[in-house]
Amino acid sequence: MRITSRVLLLPALIGLVTACTSTPAPPTYRIGFSQSVSGGDWRQAMLAGMERELVFHPEIQFLTRDAQSSSRQQQQQIHDLLDAGADVLIVAPNDAQALSPSVEEAYRRGVPVILLDHRTTSPHYAAYVGGDNTGAGATAARYAAQLLRQRGEVIEITGTPSLVASERHQGFTQALRAYPQMRVAGTVTGDWGTTTWQPTLTRLLQQHPETRLIFAHSDLMAQGAYEVCQRLGRPEVRIIGVDGLAGKGNGLEMVQQGRSTASLFYSPGGEEAIRVALKILQHQAYERENILGTIVIDSTNVLTLQQQAVKLASQQAGIEQQQHLLHTLQATYASQRTVLYGLLASLLAAIVLGASAWHAARTNRRINRELARQNEANDAINRQLSTQNEEIRAQRNQIAELAEQARVETEAKLRFFTNFSHELRTPLTLIMGPVEEMLTGRNGTALQPSQRHELGLIRRSTQRLLQLVNQLLDFRKIEVGKMAVQARPDDLVAFVRELVEAFEPAARVQQVALTLRPAEPTLPGWLDRNVLDKVFLNLLSNALKYTPAGGQITVSVQAAAEGRSLQVLVTDTGRGIRPQDSPHIFEWFYQGEQPGTGKGSGMGLALAQGLVRLHQGQLTFSSQLGQGSTFTVTLPRELPAALRAPNPAEPLDISMDEPLALPVPEVEAPVPEAEALVLVIEDNADVSEFVTRKLRPHFRVQAAADGKAGLQLALELIPDLIVCDVMMPGLSGLEVVARLRADWRTSHVPVILLTARNAPEQQVEGVQAGADVYLTKPFNPAFLLESVRTLLANRARQREHLSRELATPIDPPQAPHPDQAFIQALTAQVEADLTRTDLTVEELAHALGFSRMQLYRKVKAVLGTSITDFVQSVRLQKACELLRDDSLSVTAVAYEVGYASHSYFSNSFKARYGVAPSEFRARHQAGVS
C-alpha cells in the first residue's frame, strides 16, 4: 500500500520539481551593428565599448558586420541583419548618400535605426550618436590660443578629405578668427596615418621656422608630426592630436610621454549607442540627437585619466572573469539538474521494481542541499557584480564631473579674455580734448555753423563709443539682474533723430538712403536713453551693415495700442534673414550665414532684446529673403515708479553697449599750434610755478615734481616739448633726456634743459645727452618762450617736409635718426596687414608697443599727418603698383590693399590721385604719364 502510494505520487512530484526548476526565460532581443570598417584603434574602441555595455545585458543577442570600407557590401549586410530579425540597427555609415536607401528600407520594416558617428541623407532615423567635429576643432583652436598666449603661427594636418576632416578644419579656422595675432601658416592633407604626408610637413616647417604649434586631426598623425619635429630638431613645437584613447601608442600615452602637448578625447560612442538602443527596446524616453562632448587631455589631467582607464580595463576584465565563472556555474547547475531528473527516473524504476524508496529520498535531499549551496554561490557572485557595476558608475560620474569642470574653467577663461580685451578705454577719452577745445572756442578759432555741427556729431559719437566700451559686458549684468532702468520724460522722435544723424555720414559713404519718418512731430514718453541707445544703435548698425549700395533704410516712429505704446521700426532693403536662422536670431553668440564684410560678434541682437525686455518692451522682426528685414521695438509709454529715475530733471548720459562697425574712415583732426603741449619737469615748486605761469598763456602746460614722475607723464602724454631741470632727486635731467631719446614714443620730442651748472663742459654734456637747448639759471623768460616757439616751429617745418615726401614715394620717407627706425617699423607693420579690411589703430599701436593716443601723437609729431591718412597712403601707393598688373581686376586690387568696398576704394583713389582706378590703368596701358 505504501509503495503503491509512492508510485502514484511520484509523477506528481516529478512535475512539481520540473515546474520549480524551470524558470521562464527572459525576452531575447537582437541588436544588429553594421560598421564601415573595423580597423584602427578608434573603431576597435567603439566596438569594445558596445561589448562592455552589453556585458550587463545577457538577454541581448549582438550581431556585428564589417563592410571593409565598401558601401555596396555595407548595404547588403544591412539587408542581411534585417532578414536575421534584428530589433534595432546601429549603423556607422561609410557613405551617407549610398546608405540612405537601406535606412529607408529599415524604416519601412519598422526597425529603428541608430546612426553612429556619421549621418545619412535620410531623415528617417530613430537617433544619432556622435561627436561634434566642429566643436572639437574649435576646442583645439581655443586651447592653442591659450598655449601660445594668442600669438604665433600654427600648422594644421587634416585627415583624408571627408566630412569629419572638413568639420574639424572649419571649427579650427573659425575659432582662430577670434585671435587676430594667430595665423595658420599652412595646411597639410594627411591620410589618418603617420608617414605619407611627412615630407610635406617637413618642407612647411622649414619654410616657416616661426611655427610654434601643430594641430593634427588624429593622434596617429600627431605621432608622425612628432617624428618630423624630432628629425628637424624642433622639440619646442607644441602638438595637439585628436582621439585621446587609452592603450599603447594612443593619445593618453603620447601626452603622458611628452610626444604631444595635448589630445582631444573624441568619444567613439559605442556605450552611448547601446544605451540608446536599450531605451528603444524597453520603450523608454530617449534623446534623438546625442552629441558627445570633447575633453582636452594634457599634462594636468592625463595621469588621472590614464589611471582611470587602467582601472576601468581591470574592472572590465574582472567582470568578464566573473561572467565566465557564472556561465560555468550555470552549466554545472544545468548538468546537475539533468542528473537529478535521471535519479528521479531511476527512483521511479526502483519503486516500480521494488527498489528502496528510502535511498532515493536520501539522494534527493543531498542533491537539494548541493543546489542550495550553488544558489548561495550564485547570490555571492551577483552581489560582487553589483559592487563592480557601482564602481564603474562612480568612475563615469567622475569623468562627467571632470568634463563639467573643464567647461566651467573654459567659460571663466573666455570671461577673462573678454574683460581684458575691453580695457582700452583711455584712447577714446583722449579724443574729446581737442574737440572740446574747438567747440568752446578756447583755441581762438571761430567755427562755421557746419563745422560746429560736425564737431558736435564727433563729440556725441565719441561719448557713445567711450561708454560703449565701458558697458560691453552689460549682458552679464542682465543675466545676474544688476542692470536697472532709470527712465525720464523724453521725446522719442528727438532721441531717434539724434541717432539717425550719427549714421548719416556712414550711409552717404555706402551710398545708402537713410530716412527718418516720424508719424508725429513729438512723441513724449518715459525713456531710459542709456538702455535704448544701445538697442537702436545696434539695429541701425545691422541695417547699414547688410544693406547694399543703392539700398534704403527707413526709420519709422509712431504711436501704437491707442497711444499706450510707442514703436520704432527699422526697415532695410538688404539680403534678409534665412528661414533656418530665424528661430536663433536672438540667441547669444549665434551667427548665421553672413557676408565677409558683415561679420559680427553675435551679441548685438541678443543684447538688444534683453535691454528692450528690461524696459518692459518687446523686440520683434519680420524678414523676406532677398527683400529685406524690419525690426520693431515696442515700448510702453508709461513705466512703473520702480523704473523711473529719482530725479527726472538730471541731464542724460548717452551710452551704448556695442561698438558700431561703420565703414567710415577714421578722422583725426590736426592739433593747432596753439594747442601744443609743454611738459615742465622741475623739483623746485617756485621755479615750476614760474615757468608754468609764463608758458600757459601760449601753450597747454603740464607739470611734474621729479624726474620719475616727469618721465612717466611724458610717456603717457607724448608732449610737443619738454622743459626739464638737470639737478633733481632720483632721476636727473640728463637721465630723463637719455631715456626719452631711447624710447620710440618720445624720441622726437624737443627738450630744453634748465640748470644752475653753467660750465662749458656741463653744457656740452647736456647737448650730448640729447637736449636741444641748454639754459642756465637765472634765465630770461622771454628767451625761454622764444626758444620754445622756435623749436616747435622747426618741428612743424620738419613734419611738413616729411608729409610732402609721404604723398609720392612708396618707400617710407626719410627722417632724422632715430625717427627713421620708427617710420620703417610702422610702414612694415602696415604692409604686413595690407589685405586686412578690419585693421584698427589699436592693433597697429599694440604691435609697435604704443597706446593708441601715443601712436597718434607720435605720427602727428613726426609726419604731421593722421594715422589713418598714413595707412591710406601706403594702401593707395600699393594699389598704384597693382593696377599696372593687368591680371588683377580693380575689385581684386581693392581687396588686396584692404578695402572691403569697391566704391569706397574708387572714391578714395580718385580723391588722392584725381582719376578713378580704371582710368589710371587705362592711361598706364596707353603710355600716358
Question: How are the SSEs placed, and which strands pair?
Answer:
Elements: H1 2-21, E1 29-35, H2 41-54, E2 60-66, H3 71-83, E3 88-92, H4 100-108, E4 113-116, E5 127-131, H5 133-148, E6 152-158, H6 163-176, E7 182-189, H7 198-207, E8 211-216, H8 219-232, E9 238-243, H9 251-256, E10 262-266, H10 270-281, E11 289-292, E12 294-297, H11 302-352, H12 357-421, H13 426-440, H14 449-470, H15 474-480, E13 488-491, H16 492-509, E14 513-518, E15 524-527, H17 529-546, E16 552-560, E17 565-572, H18 604-614, E18 618-624, E19 628-636, E20 677-681, H19 685-695, E21 700-704, H20 707-717, E22 721-725, H21 733-742, E23 751-755, H22 760-769, E24 773-776, H23 781-806, H24 819-832, H25 841-848, H26 852-863, H27 867-883, H28 890-896, H29 902-913, H30 917-926
Parallel strand pairs: 1-2, 1-3, 3-4, 4-5, 5-11, 6-7, 6-8, 8-9, 9-10, 14-16, 20-21, 20-22, 22-23, 23-24
Antiparallel strand pairs: 10-12, 13-15, 16-17, 17-19, 18-19
Helix pairs in contact: 1-11, 2-10, 5-6, 7-8, 11-12, 13-14, 16-17, 17-18, 20-21, 23-26
Organism: Hymenobacter metallilatus
Keywords: Coiled coil, DNA-binding, Kinase, Membrane, Phosphoprotein, Signal, Transcription, Transcription regulation, Transferase, Transmembrane, Transmembrane helix
Catalytic activity: ATP + protein L-histidine = ADP + protein N-phospho-L-histidine
